[in-house]
Amino acid sequence: MSGSKQSVPASAPAAASTAPEAEGLTLTVHSLPSSQGLADAQRQRGGRLRMLMVLAACAAPVVASYFTFYVVQPRGSAYSELIHPTVDLPPALHLQDLQGKPVAAESLKGQWLLTLVQEGDCDEACERRFFLQRQLREMLGKERDKVDKLWLLPEDSPSPKPELIQALTAGVPVTILRAPRAELEAWLKPAAGQTLKDHVYLIDPMGRWMMRSPPQPDPSKLKGDLTRLLKANAGWDKEGR
After folding, report:
1. Residue 178 forms part of a structural domain
2. Based on the structure, what is the number of domains in the chain?
3. Number of C-alpha atoms within 13 angstroms, CB side, residue 136?
4. Structural domain of residue 127, as residue ranges?
C-alpha cells in the first residue's frame, strides 16, 4: 500500500510586528539666564528710561511754548509773524563788542532777546525803535527779567554817538554787538518790501529766531505775543543771564 507522504511546511517567517518602533525623543535644554545677567539687563533698561525722562523734562517747556502758538492759538491770532521753521543762531556768527573784543555766539543763549538791527548813525526812527524795545521789556512786569535787549550793529556801520550809547546803557543796558552785515542778512530776514532795521526780532532761549514784529508795531499787541510765550515757557527761563 502505497504510503502517502505528509509534507512538512516550511517554517513561516516571523510575523511582522504590528506595533510601531518606538521613536527616540530629542530634548533641547536651554540654559537659564543668571541672576547677574537679569540684574544687568534691568539696570540698562532703567538707565535708558531715566535718560528719556530727563530729555522729556528738558524739552517740555520749549515744546509747550510752540504748542501754545501753533496749536492752542491759531497762527492768525498772533499779532506778530511767527517764523516756521525757526532759524538757529549761526554758531559761526562773528560777534564783537564795541571795543573789538570777540564775543561767542553761544553767549547769547539762555534768555529771550528783543533784538534790533540798527545802523550806527541812528536817526529819529531808530531812536523810536530803541524806546519801543525798552518800553516792551518794562511792560512785561515781573517777567521782564527773563528778557534781554540786543542791538546788532552791522560791522561796516559807523560807530554810535557816545550820548546814544550812554542813554542805552543806563538802567538795564542794551547789549551792543557788531557783526558782518552779510552774516546778519543770512540769519534774520525782513518782511517783503522792508529792511532789517524795520522789525523787532524775537530770539528764544535756545538761540532760535522765532518771531518778527510788524514795522512800527503796536506795543500793547506785541506785548500780548510776548506774554503768551513767556507764560508757556515759564519752566525753561531763568531770571537774568
Report:
1. yes
2. 1
3. 31
4. 79-232
- pLDDT tens by residue, 1-36: 444 444 444 444 444 444 444 455 555 555 555 666
CATH at residue 151: 3.40.30.10
Rg (CA), the chain: 39
Nearest CA-CA partner of 181 in 118, 229, 126, 130: 118
Query: Could you tell me the end-to-end alpha-carbon distance of the chain, in angstroms, rounded to an integer?
Result: 141
Determine, yes or no, domain membership for 72: no
Contacts of 146 (CB under 8 A, 6+ apart): 111, 112, 140, 230, 237, 238, 239
**What confidence tens digit (pLDDT) does each residue in 168-214 have?**
988 899 999 999 999 999 999 999 999 999 999 999 999 999 999 99
Residue 136: inside a domain: yes
* Arithmetic mean of pLDDT, 226-237: 74
CB 160 within 8 A of CB 154: no
pLDDT at residue 15 in the model:
46
Taking phi over 0 as left and psi of -120 to 50 as alpha, with beta for the rest, 152 belongs to beta
Question: Which single residue is written with the C-alpha cell 528719556?
Answer: 52
